[in-house]
Automatic annotation (TrEMBL):
Family: Belongs to the Gfo/Idh/MocA family.
Claim: Amino-acid biosynthesis is one of the keywords in the record: no
Keywords: Oxidoreductase
Entry protein name: Trans-1,2-dihydrobenzene-1,2-diol dehydrogenase
Upper taxonomic lineage: Eukaryota, Metazoa, Ecdysozoa, Nematoda, Chromadorea
InterPro entries tied to this protein: Gfo/Idh/MocA-like_OxRdtase_N (IPR000683), Gfo/Idh/MocA_domain (IPR050984), GFO_IDH_MocA-like_dom (IPR055170), NAD(P)-bd_dom_sf (IPR036291)
Record-annotated GFO/IDH/MocA-like oxidoreductase domain positions: 157-263
Length: 367
């Protein structure tokens, strides 16, 4: 961190406002209770009505005497006792909501995807920099201790990455119920497939792809349903990705390197276990195919939590992201070093190219 980024620790407890009263917001307010640093929910806002915000507090056992409930987002943005807002409304609403928060001088953690295309991300990043405020796209995956350990310790010990593969498949009803492309931001790529692209970008250290080849299936409403993606990088590095709202896949992930490989058996976006295989020096063995690699298992388990408080698998792990963001604020940082604004720009550009090849165009697009 540069000297310019360092500021005195002005904040002890970070005071959060939650924008949106849906399922992921519910998981967020439960996860914050697991934080290792001082964080507290101080306000909830629903765009529908004050009653919905109050009902959200009631359903999630939040004390309405300690939390301000609002029937509009702007009311929350004008609350002077809020340090940062967590934005969790619909994808196509992110741009307008994030810009309104920034214009009200609020720091922002926005649920992924930050926006529906790169044009919108550029506008949001520009505004955050103009206002000197913190902005982060909420890919909680990058804050998981297991991923931090893999990237900082284990991956470099295996030599250069040669290939990466993963799949994310979960048959869901919601894709059938999506309204189509009229609002923008819907489809399975921006719902879950984006996690695969985000991790590929992490593993290849934010290198811009040289080539993408995409094939997939669209629903009758024009939204993407599944896709196979092959990405080529420099030095013949490859990424193979499959995401689907029609097929079931375990969410496993493999990273193949010169000296071994790393496998996450399931739920790569919120992992607790990885298996590292190390190959012996090829000069010391007669035949590589006959070589048995040494195996090491690494674990970083979530703390105990009440499963029935959460709508999605392992979203108790959102507390890792909350702790990370609050520490960034305490240090006066304007962006995350785990998910930078340049990361968000490159990811949005990659997602745009995938949609182009699939034939999914939103009203917000210029292609």
């Amino acid at each position: 961190m540069s000297e310019q980024q360092k500021q005195p620790f002005l904040l002890k407890e970070i005071r959060w406002g939650v924008v949106g009263a849906g399922r992921i917001a519910s998981d967020f307010v439960h996860a914050i209770t697991l934080c290792q640093t001082p964080n507290k929910i101080k306000a909830i806002a629903s765009s529908d009505s004050l009653e919905r915000a109050q009902k959200f507090c009631e359903n999630n056992l939040l004390d309405k005497n300690e939390i301000n409930c609002y029937g509009s987002y702007n009311e929350l943005f004008n609350d002077e006792f809020i340090d940062i807002v967590y934005i969790s409304n619909l994808n196509h609403q992110h741009k307008e909501t994030v810009l309104a928060a920034l214009n009200s001088n609020k720091n922002v953690l926005c649920e992924k995807p930050l926006a529906v295309n790169k044009l919108e991300v550029e506008e949001m990043v520009k505004k955050a920099k103009e206002k000197g405020l913190f902005l982060m796209e909420g890919y909680w995956t990058r804050c998981f201790p297991l991923w931090i350990d893999i990237m900082s310790k284990h991956l470099n010990s295996l030599g250069n990455v040669q290939m990466f593969s993963t799949e994310f498949g979960c048959p869901i009803i919601r894709v059938n119920a999506m309204t189509g492309i009229k609002d923008g931001g819907e489809g399975y790529l921006l719902a879950s497939g984006c996690y695969c692209l985000m991790i590929a970008q992490l593993i290849f250290k934010s290198e811009k792809p040289l080539e993408l080849k995409v094939e997939g299936k669209l629903k009758e409403n024009g939204l993407d349903y599944w896709a196979n993606i092959l990405i080529k990088y420099s030095d013949n590095k490859l990424a193979r990705i499959f995401y689907s709202g029609e097929h079931r896949a375990d969410g496993g992930l493999n990273i193949y390197c010169e000296k071994g490989n790393i496998r996450i058996p399931e739920f790569f976006w919120c992992p607790e276990e990885a298996i590292i295989r190390r190959y012996p020096d090829p000069k010391t063995v007669p035949h590589l195919l006959a070589v048995k690699a040494t195996t090491e298992k690494i674990n970083n388990n979530l703390p105990e939590f009440n499963l029935f408080n959460y709508n999605y698998p392992k979203t108790a792990g959102l507390f890792y992201q909350i702790d990370h963001v609050s520490n960034c604020l305490r240090e006066g940082m304007k962006e995350s070093f785990l998910m930078t604004l340049n990361d968000s720009l490159l990811l949005a550009e990659t997602l745009d190219e995938i949609r182009k090849q699939l034939g999914v165009k939103y009203p917000q697009d210029d292609f």
